[in-house]
Structure formats: structure tokens, C-alpha cells
Amino acid sequence: MKAVGVIVEYNPFHNGHFYHIKESKKETEADITIAVMSGQFLQRGEPALVDKWHRTKMALLSGIDIVIELPYVFSTGHATHFAEGATQLLDAIQCDSFAFGSEQGTIQPFLNTYSLLKKYDDDYNALIKQFVSTGLSYPQSLYMAYEKLKKLEEKDYIDLSQPNNILGYHYVEAASRLNLSIKPVTIQRIKAGYHDSIFKDSSIASATGIRKSLFESLSLDEIKNYVPTTTFTQLQEWKDKHTQFVNWDTFWPLLRYAIIRNTPEQLTQFADVSEGIEHALMKAARKSHSFSQFMTTLKSKRYTWTRLQRMITHIYTGITKDALQQFSKPTYIRLLGMTSDGQKYLSENKKDFKLPLISRVASTKDAMLQLDLRATEMYGQGLNLVSKDAPAADYQTPPIRL
């Protein structure tokens, strides 16, 4: 059986994702689709809207055949690390190709961009330092350096101001640099941009727009036209059980406590917390009555919203620099769910997987997996602030079978 992989968060699964799965299978002539999906905490440093089990069900009910978890080590990392973990896992589970959505829509410009930046690596790094020294943020400096390099050779390159192009480039770069056998494919992103709000005359909306609508209106009816019926059902089930969807506001009392209970020196031990901000974190936590007030106080040119959120994710979960730095690549394939076709694929190909397949966590002492279990525990602790129903722990939840 031929498999195409997709790298996802499904926060939540929407009609654009459904289109992406359909087109990915068509483009690659694959028999099944395998999703490597972030767990309880996501790449932009935030808790998932609903837990990984509900998002797994959304995926399996809408065209995905196997869902595996992207470990916390990678799911909360910067784009390069996120891409390295995801592509290696899809390669390890023997996907022939991986498909990602992009504003570009064709793969050759991605390959051209990778070749350009590899060829002029020293010049690129020198330009980045030059732009950073002028006061630009690191992401802005990357973009400016790239725009300058593009003028050296006349080829078709991607627009690195577009968010999905940026992430797609990191996937292509990771697969190429790590010499993986998996082949990259890109699907044109349609209608809704990454950060767009909901448009009433469309059936496609971004996950960002859907989340914004859910938190502003508190009504599922507002997003009904933009998600498959199966997603709507899972979201309704979650709301009925837990009363609300999850964001940092949900966890704010515990997050505030996690910051204040440490000394400034202890805060610097947590992953992604750079020296110099520890006093500002402490001061803002003591003064702020909400998460949004806390973040508004801290955000600056140097510290972007995403960078700050990654810091506080690690403070909240208790993950230190030392804990994360011991891992450079995935050590297992964690199965979250499968369809009957997915189960058949696993039975036929398991012996060829490059990493051990884990379906039950109780018998596994893998150190990387322990961080995933801690993340799930802390997600549950936060959810308990607003919900009477305790969320399912990893030890209690077997892979979902549909």
C-alpha cells in the first residue's frame, strides 16, 4: 500500500483540511494518508482547542487512515525543529511522500529556494546578522536577507512572507538536509489565508479564523459551514462535556502560579526562556489579571507573541532546557488512531518501520515519551479548572480504531 504523509495540528479539522487530504491522495496516487499530529501543545506555543483524542477522531472520520503523535519535543519547537521531527516520523513509518499546503502551490520553487540558501549559506548568515544589528527582529532579518539573495540568480523562488510557504520550506529543507527518502509535494492553499477571519460567503476558513469565532461568539453555529459534520459533532461533544474550548485564558490561574512560584533564576532554566526576560515575566505575572494583559505587557520587537508563548508553554509544563536538549531526533512512533485500512497498512509494513511503534504507553519508559505524558497531565490539570469531567490520561486511552 502506498502512503502519503501530512504534517498537521487540526486545531480544529476544517473543510480546507478535507480538501488538502483529497488533493494529496490524488496528486500522489496514494492508497492511504498518514497524519503526524501535534499533541496537547502546539507549534505556536499554545494549548490545543480540544485534546488530541478528539482531534484524532476528527481526522479519522474525514479521510486520514493513521494518526501518529508528533512528540512534545518537536511539536512546541521552532519551525526547523518542528519540521525535522515531523518529516523523520513520516519517513520512519514508510510514507512514499509528504504533502503540505502552501500559497505557492508548486514544488519546484521550494527546491530552488533550498538550493539557493544552501549555496550561499555563509552570505545568508552574514546578512541576517547585519539586519539584526539594525534593530530588526530575527524573523524580519531572515526575510530581508533572503530577498537580497534572490537577486543573485534568476529562478522561480517562493515568497517567504507567506506563513504556509515558510513552514513548507522548513519541511523541504529538513527532508533534504537529513537525506530522507520521502518525497515532498505541495498542494495549493485555497481561499482562506493562515490568519484570515471567517468570510460569510465561503465554506473554507482558516483554523485561526474558526478559533477566533468560537472564542468571540461562544457559539458553534457560527462555524458550522466551515467544518465537516464529523468535526462539528466532536466539537459539540467536547463543549457538552467540558463547557468551553481551551486557550491560555483557560489555564491562566495555573500558568500565573507556575511563573510566580519560581525565582527569576529558576525561570531561566526552562526551555526557550532567554536570560534577561525572567524579571519581566515575574513582574507581568504579578500585575496581570488575564493572559491577554500578561502578553500585551511583555510583547516587544525582540520578543514576539509566538516566542513568548513557547517560553510559557515550557514553564507551565515544567520542561527545562536540559530536558529538551538531550533529544535531536524521534525515538518512537506513537499511534493515536487508525481506520481499518490504516490497520492493514500497519500489519503489512510494521517490520520495515525505522522506529518502534508504540500503541500502549504503560509498558514504555522512553524518556522522550515521558515528556508527552507530562504535557497531557498538565493539559488535564488546566482543563480541570473549568470542567467537572477529568480528561482521559494517556495510560487510560488506547489508540482509536474506526
From TrEMBL:
It is found in: Cytoplasm. InterPro entries: Rossmann-like_a/b/a_fold, tRNA(Met)_cyd_acetate_ligase. The gene is tmcAL. GO terms for biological process: tRNA modification. It comes from the Bacteria. PANTHER family: TRNA(MET) CYTIDINE ACETATE LIGASE. ATP binds at residues 7-20, 101, 164, 189-190. Belongs to the TmcAL family. It is an enzyme of class 6 (ligase). Transmembrane segments: none annotated. One of its GO terms (molecular function) is transferase activity. The keyword tRNA-binding applies. It catalyses: cytidine(34) in elongator tRNA(Met) + acetate + ATP = N(4)-acetylcytidine(34) in elongator tRNA(Met) + AMP + diphosphate. It holds the Pfam family HIGH_NTase1. This is tRNA(Met) cytidine acetate ligase. Keywords: ATP-binding, Cytoplasm, Ligase, Nucleotide-binding, RNA-binding, Transferase, tRNA processing, tRNA-binding. Gene3D superfamilies: HUPs. Catalyzes the formation of N(4)-acetylcytidine (ac(4)C) at the wobble position of elongator tRNA(Met), using acetate and ATP as substrates. First activates an acetate ion to form acetyladenylate (Ac-AMP) and then transfers the acetyl group to tRNA to form ac(4)C34. GO terms for cellular component: cytoplasm. The keyword Mitochondrion does not apply. Its EC number is 6.3.4.-.
